C-alpha cells in the first residue's frame, strides 16, 4: 500500500496511540533504519507531539540531532535532506511490508520534516462506525454524517443511492486493480539439459561431460534441473512443465580434434521456441588430461548458465512482467543490487525479502539473502540488533540447507561482521567446497580474507573469481583494486576502482585516495562525490572502516590518500594508525 493510499484512508490518531506506535516501530528489528535516522524520527515526532504541526526546519535537525555547528547552512550542506530521504525510504518499505498488520502508520511527507500518524486503511470502516472524519492529505475525502430522519425528499434519497453505487463501483474497481497488480510468488526456472556429439566416436565423452555439467548446475541452487535428454528425442513434453514456472532448454553439441575440445551451446525459451543466446566454449588440450579438460569446460559453462548474473538468471531479473514479484525473482534482484547497487538500492529490496521469508519460512535462499541485505543496507556501523538478526537468519538458512553455498556465504558475512573472523573464514571455505564453480563465492571469501589481512590468499581468490565470467563480481574487483593500492601501484588502483560499476562508500573513498596519492587534479572531484554520499565521513572514517572489519594498516593508508586529496580528516579518538 502506498503512502498516498494510506493517507486517503485515515482517521484521527490519539497522541497515546501515536506514541505507542513510535516506540513499537523503533524497537522493531524489522525496521531497517540507521541510528541517525531513528534519532531524527524521534526528534520530529516529539516536536509534533509538542504542537509543531507544521514540522521543523532542516537547521534545527542539523543542530539538535546531527551535531552540526551553528554556522550550518542547509543550502550548501545536504546532510539533512539525505538523511530524511533515507528515513522516508525506510518508513515506506516497512509499512509496505507490514502495514496491513498494524493499526497506525507513520509517514514523512516529501518536502516537509513533519511526522504524520495515519490509521491503516484496513481499519477505515471502524473509524466510520465511530462517527469520525476520514480525510486524505488535501482533506477532500470526508465521511457523510447525516442524522437519521433528516432526508427531506426523494431527490435526496436518489442522491444517496447514487453516492452508494458510486462508492461500491470505486471499491470493486480498486479490489480488481489490486487483484490484477498484486505481486506473485515466483519459483526457480526449470532447465532441461541435452548434449550430443558431432562425431559418434565422441558421444561417450559428451555424455560424461553432460553428467558433470548437470551436477555443477545443481550446486548453484538458482535453477531447477528437470532431467537430461538426448537432443535427438525432442524437448521435455510441455505437459510436464508447470504452467506458472519459466522453463528453458539448454542444447549442447560436443566437438573435438587433436588440439582442443569445444562445445557449441544455445539457450532456448521452452514455450516460445525462441533462441535467447548461443555461443561456443573451447579448451586447448596442451598436454592436459581428459579430466582436466572436462572440468575446465564444465566450469566455464556452469558459470555462464547458473550464476546469479548468468544468462538465465539475468533474463529472470529483468523480466518486466514480474515487477514487484516475491520469491525467486526477489532473491535474484536483491543479489543483483548487493553486487552493483547502492545502499538505498539494497534497502529497497528488504520489503519483498521480508515478505518472502514470512510467507515461505522454509526458503533458505530468502533467509540467506535477507541476512546479507540487512548488513549491506546500513553501510559501515551497524546496530547490534541488526547484527544479531542477520546472524540468526544465516544460521536458519544453513539449518534449512546445510549444503547451500548461498546459506554458508550468508553465515560467513554475518559471523565476520559480528567479529568472529575465524568462524567466518571457515564458513566461507565450506561454501567454496560446496560450489567451487561459483565466482561469487570466491569473490566474497576473497573480500573477507583481504579485509582480515590475508592479502595473498584474498588476492588469489579474487583473481580466480574474475576468470571466465561475463561480469566480474564487485567484491573481486574491489579486492584487486585494494591490493594494487596496498602495493603502492596508485595508477592501477585508480584504474581498477574506476572500472567498478558501483558507487558505494568504499569504492568512492578508494577512487579519491588513489588520485590523491597520484597528486591528480581530479582527486577533488572524486572527494566531492564521496562527500555527497557521506557528508560526515571525514569525522567518522576510521570508525566506519573499523566497523567494516578492515585491517588498521589498510585503513591508515587509505586515510592518508584522502588527506592528500584534500580531505579534512578529524578523528581525535582514533588510534594512531600507521600505513604500510
From TrEMBL:
Keywords annotated in UniProt: Membrane, Transmembrane, Transmembrane helix
Top-level division of the source organism's lineage: Bacteria
Native species: Rhizobium leguminosarum
Protein name according to UniProt: Tetratricopeptide repeat protein
Transmembrane segments: 160-180
Amino acid at each position: 500500500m502506498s503512502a498516498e493510499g494510506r493517507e486517503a484512508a485515515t482517521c484521527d490518531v490519539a497522541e497515546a496511540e501515536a506514541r505507542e506506535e513510535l516506540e513499537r516501530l523503533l524497537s522493531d528489528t524489522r525496521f531497517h533504519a540507521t541510528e541517525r535516522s531513528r534519532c531524527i524520527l524521534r526528534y520530529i515526532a516529539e516536536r509534533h507531539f509538542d504542537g509543531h504541526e507544521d514540522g521543523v526546519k532542516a537547521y534545527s535537525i542539523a543542530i539538535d540531532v546531527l551535531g552540526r555547528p551553528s554556522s550550518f547552512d542547509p543550502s550548501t550542506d545536504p546532510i539533512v535532506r539525505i538523511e530524511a530521504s533515507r528515513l522516508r525510504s525506510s518508513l515506506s518499505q516497512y509499512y509496505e511490508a507490514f502495514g496491513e498488520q498494524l493499526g497506525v502508520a507513520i509517514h514523512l511527507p516529501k518536502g516537509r520534516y513533519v511526522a504524520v500518524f495515519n490509521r491503516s486503511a484496513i481499519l477505515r470502516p471502524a473509524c466510520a462506525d465511530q462517527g469520525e472524519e476520514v480525510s486524505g492529505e488535501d482533506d477532500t475525502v470526508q465521511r457523510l454524517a447525516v442524522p437519521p430522519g433528516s432526508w427531506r425528499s426523494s431527490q435526496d434519497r436518489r442522491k444517496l443511492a447514487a453516492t452508494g453505487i458510486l462508492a461500491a463501483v470505486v471499491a470493486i474497481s480498486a479490489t480488481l486493480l489490486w487483484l490484477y497488480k498484486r505481486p506473485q510468488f515466483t519459483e526457480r526456472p526449470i532447465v532441461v539439459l541435452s548434449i550430443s556429439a558431432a562425431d559418434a566416436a565422441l558421444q561417450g565423452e559428451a555424455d560424461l561431460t553432460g553428467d558433470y555439467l548437470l551436477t555443477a548446475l545443481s550446486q548453484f541452487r538458482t535453477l531447477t534441473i528437470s532431467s537430461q535428454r538426448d537432443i535427438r528425442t525432442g524437448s521435455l513434453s510441455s505437459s510436464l512443465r508447470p504452467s506458472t514456472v519459466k522453463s528453458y532448454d539448454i542444447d549442447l553439441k560436443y566437438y573435438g580434434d587433436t588440439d582442443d575440445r569445444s562445445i557449441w551451446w544455445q539457450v532456448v525459451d521452452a514455450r516460445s521456441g525462441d533462441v535467447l543466446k548461443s555461443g561456443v566454449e573451447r579448451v586447448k588440450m596442451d598436454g592436459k588430461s581428459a579430466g582436466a579438460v572436462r572440468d575446465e569446460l564444465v566450469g566455464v559453462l556452469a558459470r555462464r548458465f547458473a550464476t546469479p548474473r548468468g544468462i538465465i538468471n539475468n533474463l529472470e531479473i529483468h523480466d518486466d512482467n514480474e515487477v514487484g514479484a516475491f520469491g525467486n525473482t526477489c532473491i535474484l534482484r536483491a543479489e543483483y543490487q548487493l553486487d552493483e547497487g547502492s545502499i538505498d538500492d539494497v534497502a529497497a529490496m528488504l520489503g519483498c525479502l521480508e515478505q518472502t521469508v514470512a510467507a515461505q519460512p522454509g526458503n533458505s535462499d530468502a533467509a540467506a539473502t535477507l541476512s546479507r541485505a540487512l548488513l549491506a543496507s546500513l553501510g559501515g556501523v551497524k546496530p547490534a540488533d541488526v547484527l544479531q538478526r542477520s546472524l540468526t537468519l544465516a544460521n536458519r538458512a544453513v539449518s534449512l540447507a546445510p549444503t547451500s553455498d548461498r546459506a554458508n556465504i550468508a553465515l560467513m558475512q554475518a559471523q565476520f561482521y559480528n567479529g568472529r573472523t575465524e568462524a567466518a573464514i571457515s564458513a566461507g571455505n565450506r561454501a567454496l567446497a560446496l560450489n567451487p564453480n561459483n565466482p561469487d563465492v570466491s569473490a566474497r571469501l576473497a573480500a573477507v580474507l583481504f579485509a582480515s589481512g590475508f592479502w595473498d590468499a584474498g588476492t588469489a581468490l579474487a583473481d580466480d573469481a574474475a576468470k571466465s565470467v561475463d561480469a566480474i563480481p564487485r567484491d573481486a574487483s574491489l579486492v584487486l583494486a585494494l591490493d594494487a593500492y596496498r602495493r603502492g601501484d596508485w595508477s592501477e588502483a585508480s584504474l581498477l576502482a574506476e572500472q567498478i560499476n558501483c558507487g558505494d562508500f568504499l569504492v568512492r573513498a578508494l577512487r579519491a585516495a588513489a588520485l590523491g596519492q597520484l597528486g591528480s587534479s581530479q582527486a577533488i572531484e572524486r572527494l566531492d562525490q564521496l562527500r555527497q554520499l557521506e557528508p560526515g565521513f571525514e569525522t567518522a572514517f576510521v570508525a566506519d572502516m573499523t566497523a567494516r572489519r578492515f585491517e588498521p594498516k589498510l585503513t591508515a593508508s587509505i586515510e592518508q590518500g584522502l588527506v592528500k586529496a584534500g580531505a579534512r580528516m578529524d578523528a581525535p579518538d582514533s588510534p594512531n594508525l600507521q600505513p604500510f
